[in-house]
């Protein structure tokens, strides 16, 4: 009976010791060899923070507006057509050009809008023709430079009626147009006439 009591006590001590070790391990108060080193925990927190930051950057970049080449060429074609084809019968042509432009080009054109309208209306200018070639020359993210070629035949009349002038030869133009986003829309920011 003495032996069974002793073995029962030893078994109880082992169970208490194991329970204390488990409790110390869970609370982080045990002997240093039983605890996870703090540098391992700090490294784990840093790794998790880096993963979260990387995912956040990827989500933001993916959510940004990406434009296709056809978007750039379409804006260039529409704006250059409005710019090169004045029409005395369309008083809103200058407004269309301003609405499709931004930056220094918009500022410069806005300063001369009144003179542009007056000249086109007074001369009764009407142009026909159009853009016959558009291509993206270079691109950097959401900014592109587009090469545009156009043929324009200008007629002017007196007193506001447009009558064809004899011997009017068509004019060929080559332009380099810079297009960039402004308030979520692609707009022309620079127009350069090429030789």
Total DSSP E strands: 4
β-strand percent reads 25-35%
Radius of gyration: 38 Å
Distance between the termini: 115 Å
Mean pLDDT: 82
Shape descriptor: rod-shaped
What class, by secondary structure content? alpha+beta
Order of helices and strands: HHHHHEEEE
Main β sheet profile: 4 strands, antiparallel
Number of helices: 5
Please supply descriptive tags for the structure shown above:
5 helices, single chain, alpha+beta
Written description of the protein model:
By secondary structure, this protein is of the alpha+beta class. It has helices at 2-27, 38-63, 69-84, 93-99, 103-123, and strands at residues 126-140, 143-155, 171-182, 185-194. A 4-stranded antiparallel β-sheet has the order 1-2-3-4, with helices on one face. The longest helix has 26 residues, at 2-27. It is rod-shaped, with a radius of gyration of 38 Å.
What is the strand and helix layout of this fold?
Elements: H1 2-27, H2 38-63, H3 69-84, H4 93-99, H5 103-123, E1 126-140, E2 143-155, E3 171-182, E4 185-194
Antiparallel strand pairs: 1-2, 2-3, 3-4
